[in-house]
Amino acid sequence: MSYSTSNHSHLTDIELVQHYKATANKVFVGELYKRYTHLVLGMCINYFKDRDVAKDMVLQIFEKLFDELKKREVENFKAWLTFVVRNYCISELRKMQAQANRNADYQYEVKSQTSEDEKETLIEEEQKLEALGKAMNRLNPLQKKCIELFYLKNMTYTQIVEMTGYSVNEVKSYIQNGKRNLKMIITSLK
C-alpha cells in the first residue's frame, strides 16, 4: 500500500490514525492537528483561562499524540482526543497547583524564618540597650553626662563645654574614659 504525503484531507480521522500507525509518518497526525486545533485550543482556554498557556498546551498535547496513537486503539478520534485533552489539562493544572503550593510553602517558611530572625535581632538589640542602660548608671556622673550629651543628644565638644562649663580637655577625657568604662562594665555584665 502506498501512502502519498501530498494531501490527506480526503481521509477520515480513523484512516489518518491507521496510516500513522502503519508508517509513523507525522504528516498524518499533522492533518489531524489541522482538523482539531480549534477544538483543543478551546478546551485548553477553558481550563487554563490564559490564551498563551493554552497555545503551549495544544502543542504539548499534539506532541503527546505521536506516542499515544501508536499505543491505543482509537475508534472515534474526536471523542478520544477530547478525553486525552481533558485528562492532560487536569494533570497539568494539578502540577501547576502543586508547584504554586510548594512556592507558597517556601515563601511562608522564608517569611517565618525572617520573622524569627527579626525577633531574635530585636531581642538582642533590646538586651544590648538594657545592658547599656545599666552600664550608664554605673558610670561616674561626669562621664555619664558627657557621654549622654555627645552620643545621645549629638552635641559637639564646644556645645558640651558651653552647657557644662567643663574645659574641652575635660569633656574629651570624660567621654574617652566613659567609653572605656562602659565597655568594661558591659563585658562584666555578660
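^ that was protein a. below is b, sequence first then the C-alpha cells
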Amino acid sequence: MIVVMKSLATPGEINAVVNQIETLGFQVHLSHGTERTIIGVVGDDRPLQNHNFEMLNGVEKVVRILQPFKLASRDFHPENTIVEVRGVQIGGPKLTIIAGPCAVESRSQILETAHAVKEAGADILRAGAYKPRTSPYTFQGIGEEGLELLAEAREATGLPIITEVMSPEAVPLVGQYTDIYQVGARNMQNFTLLQAVGKTRLPVFVKRGLSSTAQELLMAAEYVLSGGNHGVMVCERGIRTFETATRNTLDINAIPLLKQWTHLPVFADPSHGTGKWDLVAPIAKGCIAAGADGLIIEVHPRPEQALSDGAQSLKPERFVELMSDLRRLAAAVGRVL
C-alpha cells in the first residue's frame, strides 16, 4: 500500500501519517518527488485494509499495490533511482558500460584489459575472482589474489570495479576490495546471500536466474532493498529455453517491462545472453534501443586463450567499434554515452 500526499501537504501532515503507520507496527519508505511525497508501507499490509488513511489531513489517495515486490516497485518510488559509485552515476540519462574479462587470470591480463576498456570509454571494470562453474573441473578463479589484482587495476585506471560474491561468508572479504557486489544468475535466489549484501552499503548488481521470471528477479532485489541497501541494479542476462543455437535466450522483452515495473537501473548482458562474440554487438544495440540503462560486456585481449567464456568475449578493437556505434545509438534514443 502507498499513501500519496497532496502537493501542498506540510511536513507535519506527512509526519502524522508516518507516525500512525509506524504505530500499527509497519515500516515506512518515504519517496520525496518533485511534486508529491509518497509514503510506502513495507510489509504485509492486509491488516490495514480497514484503516481509512484518506481521512487524514494532507492525504490525496491510498493505492493498493498488487505486485509482491514493494520497495522495488515504481509505485513506491516513481522517479528513477540513481546509484553512484566513485563518481559514476548509474540509472540517469547517461548509459553505463561495464566491461572486462569473465575472470581475472593474471596481473598482465587484467591490467591490459582494464586499460583497453578504459580507453574505449567503459565506466566500470568487471572480472570474477571466484567463478561459479557448471563443472567442478573447470577454472574456478584465483580467489583473493584476483581481488587484489582488481584493486590494482582500479588504482591504475580509476575505473570502479564489480566482481561476484558467491556466499554470505564471502561478503566481508569481497567487500574489502570491490565497489559493487555482483550476485550472479546461479545465486539470484540464494536468499541468505541477498540478505547479507542487503546489510551492507555497497551497491548490488543482481542478475536474472537461468530459469527465473522478471517478477522473481525483482523479488530478489526486494530482499536486498528490505535490508536497507537501496543501491540495487538488476540485469537481464538471458534465460534457458529450448533454443540451442545460442548459449541462452536474451529476453529483450524484459527490459521495457522491468523499466515499467521498477525504478531500479536495468542492465543487459549480451555476452551471456548469446554466448557468441559476433552476436554481442547487435544484441547490445537492441538492448539499448529497448531502454536498458547500461550493458555488461565481456572483453578479453586474447579470447582464444581465455580460461573461461572466450567464445563470447570481444577483443578490445571490436569493443572500440561497438562503443562508437553505441554513442550514435544513444543519441538517437535520447541518452548519452
